[in-house]
Design brief:
2 copies of one chain form a homodimer. By secondary structure, the first copy, chain A, is an alpha/beta fold. Chain A is built from 14 helices and 12 strands. The first copy, chain A, has a 6-stranded parallel β-sheet, with helices on both faces. A 6-stranded mixed β-sheet of chain A has the order 7-6-8-9-10-12, with helices on both faces. In chain A, helix 8 packs parallel to helix 10. Chain A is elongated. The structure holds a DNA duplex.
Chain lengths: 338, 338
DNA sequence: GTGAAAGCGCTAACAT
DNA sequence: ATGTTAGCGCTTTCAC
């Protein structure tokens, strides 16, 4: 293995100089810097991560706890991971994976000084991990919004605002009855914070706009979507607009509407709340409110890095605001003249 | 931070004794072992991963390179990851993530001695990573089967045998025309080894069984599946049986058949090649050949651990054999008496 | 602007 | 069965 000493010898300088030349933690003459860089390149030197961690108490590694739960959409999850890994690399950090169900994972990564900071995905309203994470030496960033963050930083999409935006948009078009095709019942039963916030926003805006709101929790299957659509269309005031917050069910909902002979947007307007990639991979264009999963992941990393720079700082919660992208799947309801 | 010395003091033994008591690398008296364990528990001692890596040249970490490519099914991918992470933990290892598109990832993880071994997912027929991996100090396991493994170990599902099994099963039932609903064209264009092997097995067994074989490469969309089903049913010899190797399109194929009024299995038999979880989450039972992604991931870890134990050993390739699970979606063709 | 040297916390000979 | 000790490769005072 080629060590820092080999590089130093080759460059004709002291090991510490090589270290400083590489880290930039003190000024180096241009001449020396070049010699070092050439030696590094010629020898193919790579600092030993363990030695570095031991000496500097920094690992250049972030811990990421990912869920393996029912009802969590894998596509969305992968977007989070993509955002995290990509941004972490830009900060010269790697990502160590732990799964939700591995109970001692948090303590192992942090206690063993394997990571500089921790990112917890899919944090629920009352998540037992929050209390444990708050007790750790390393900073922890939560993706999600627990009832009590206990001083930890949080990032999430503003689901409440997203639902309100969707309802307002539809109500402004003239719709007086709006349906919500929500996540599977299991997701709500877990008290997943995001589902509850979305529901809250939906109900609130429905009331404010003075329209009727109907909610169907929907499994991500053809049968489930069909049942949801049927239930909604069979209601006393059948909705003329649908908000879909269930990426897996979205294609089935579109399908079910077509089977019902309901044209989009002539008979029924449609707004999805999902990552742009999901909306754009549908067989027909669907207006959507972007769930910016990749961005949220990137922001989580940035917050972690901020905390590593400056120890102080109060707990911050960042909720990313919703943006509606109109792709023509919404219009005024059929029986209202424009 | 509580160190091994603190533990040693508390237990009244030497630091090395603590090390040995914890690793079990030499025999320890019952009495000493207990004292050490108690001290560890009382102090909440966690070995410093970096220090350990530096002293032992072992990191207890596996590197995992995951694809972020088009056409790779995320559900299947997550199953691989799940299998890998779970089995790795059973060997007391953690998993460090790199993405395919991060070019220097391999060299950074291995050169920096961040990992003991490497697992590369989604290896293609002519994958440039293979040559680079073969040159590394750490053992590398490939998930997939390149044309030339260059001395590296490989694990994969035997797609060739799976296709043959599917065709044979259907031919034995009396079908004389069999359709293959394959992956999206993009997957084949990349020379993804698994898609080619499946196609090869399909064509070979079709010939051997003396039946007609039709192939449709299919995008994972409703429209794509519909088009594929229509193309097949409009052929001069419309297939009475379908093999579907495209988890994302599977539900749409089932849907399209229903729209065509084709009963399953009365009019058309169906065999899917996909993870059991995918087959079982369909709206109706589908006979399938299990794509054991979790197991493959676990096997990859085991092979990596084997290589770490004993340096020698020739390059091994393990292809997991197919098993057909009949869930009643196959039957003799309609116009053949039993 | 550069060097010398003292650890960081652990493992693994080498002793006994 | 246990203790002593010499590093592992790096960062970071401290000194010049």
């Amino acid at each position: 293995m080629v060590t820092i000493e080999d590089v130093a010898r080759r460059a004709g300088v002291a090991p510490s100089t090589v270290s400083y030349a590489l880290s930039g933690k003190r000024s180096i003459s241009e001449r020396t810097r070049e010699r070092v860089e050439r030696a590094v390149a010629e020898l193919g030197y790579r600092p030993h991560a363990g030695a570095r961690a031991l000496a500097s108490a920094r690992t250049s590694t972030l811990g990421l706890m990912i869920p393996l739960r029912q009802g969590v959409d894998v596509n969305v999850m992968m977007q989070f991971v993509l955002g995290i890994v990509t941004r972490a690399r830009e900060f010269d950090h790697d990502v160590l994976l732990v799964t939700q169900d591995e109970d001692a994972g948090l303590e192992r990564l942090t206690g063993g000084r394997m990571v500089d900071a921790l990112i917890l995905m899919d944090v629920e309203a009352a998540d037992p991990r929050v209390g444990r994470a708050a007790r750790l030496a390393q900073p922890t960033i939560l993706i999600g919004l627990p009832d009590d963050p206990q001083g930890l930083h949080c990032v999430d999409f503003d689901f409440d605002a997203a639902a309100r935006l969707a309802v307002r948009h539809l109500a402004d078009l003239g719709h007086t009855s709006i349906g919500l095709v929500g996540p599977p019942p299991a997701v709500l039963e877990r008290h997943t914070s995001f589902a509850e916030r979305l529901l809250h926003g939906f109900r609130e805006q429905v009331e404010r706009s003075g329209v009727t709101g109907l909610v169907e929790l929907t499994p991500p299957t053809h049968a489930g979507a069909l049942a949801a659509v049927e239930a909604l269309r069979g209601a006393s005031e059948p909705p003329t607009a649908l908000v879909v917050h269930n990426e897996a069910a979205l294609p089935w909902v579109v399908d079910a509407l077509q089977m019902h002979g309901a044209g989009i947007p002539t008979d029924v307007s449609l707004v999805a709340i999902c990552p742009a990639a999901v909306a754009q991979s549908q067989s027909r264009p669907v207006s959507f409110i972007d769930l910016p999963a990749t961005t949220i992941g990137a922001v989580a990393v940035e917050m972690a890095m901020d905390r590593l720079e400056e120890q102080g700082g109060a707990a911050e919660t960042r909720l990313l605001g919703p943006v509606l992208v109109d792709q023509g799947s919404t219009a005024p309801p059929p029986h209202v003249s424009p």
